[in-house]
User: Fold this.
Amino acid sequence: MSGAGVLGAVGLARAKPAGDGPVIGLALGSGAARGWAHLGVLQELACEGITPRIITGCSIGAFVGAAAASGDLAKLVRWAETLKWQDVVSLLDVSLRGGLIKGQKLIDFFERNFVDRDFSELDQRFACVATELSTGREIWLHEGSVAAAVRASIALPGLMTPVLHEGRMLVDGGLVNPVPVSLCRAMGADVVIAVDLGSDIVGRAFRRSAVEPAPVEETEAGWTERLLARFGFAAEDVGMAPARVPDGAEVLPSLVSVISSSINIMQVRIARSRLAGEPADLLIAPRVSQLGLMDYHRADEAIAEGVAAVARVRPLLRELLGTASE
Assistant:
């Protein structure tokens, strides 16, 4: 079976890991910078004595899930907590063809610091989701290079360039399966814990916040403008700046805000539909709507909310696993 193919009957037949007790699976959802909340969720689950034997991920969930399955979670947490917005910008490489960012710098960093491995060499069973651009098919990646699979899963349309992987042009898996519960069950999970990062995200950009706004250079529009400037472009040249309107008129959002808000709406609707038809046994929903698409430098905030989200469902979690072990 190709690494870019959907698990077939043979893969399903040998997917269930050996061991005593129910097989716990963890499905980590998409959500860009909000995905650092997954780190807090994983830490808190570990405090509860829960180590999933199967991990599936989509987009940022694939990135975090790959690190967890490789045994590099603590290293990823340390790195994320030290990130500043300047560091985020330094990992981005401009491409105005197919997407704003090539993504090669990010994957090179992943391979250098978290060591690319073959799926078969991981400490825990792991797979991630991507979308075939030409057909819209959901693609389950579970063989070959983990870094290559993660790069395909995080290829957010419009932001990151698509990936040619084993003859298929792949983009972000969030287009078809933002919280991959179905993949987790297909790999043999008896109990699936899912993490949905979009429960409170729709309308975030247009809600007033009591929190003091971030400096302009740290906003999505700010980092985009600085990134483009490094390569000799102005935001106005590529339509990334907010529309200019007469004094007193309502200011229209920037292209980045429109794209990110539209992606949020799309992924929330898809996630709710998929979760209704393929429900998890327990859904953890961190409240991270205050984090923007590229707020990777706010890891402390996201991680803390991931911990809090597990605390909110702790009674249900203990009841579920107590029942499952009987």
Residues 1-10, 208-218 have pLDDT under 50 and may be disordered. The first strand starts at residue 24 and ends at 28.
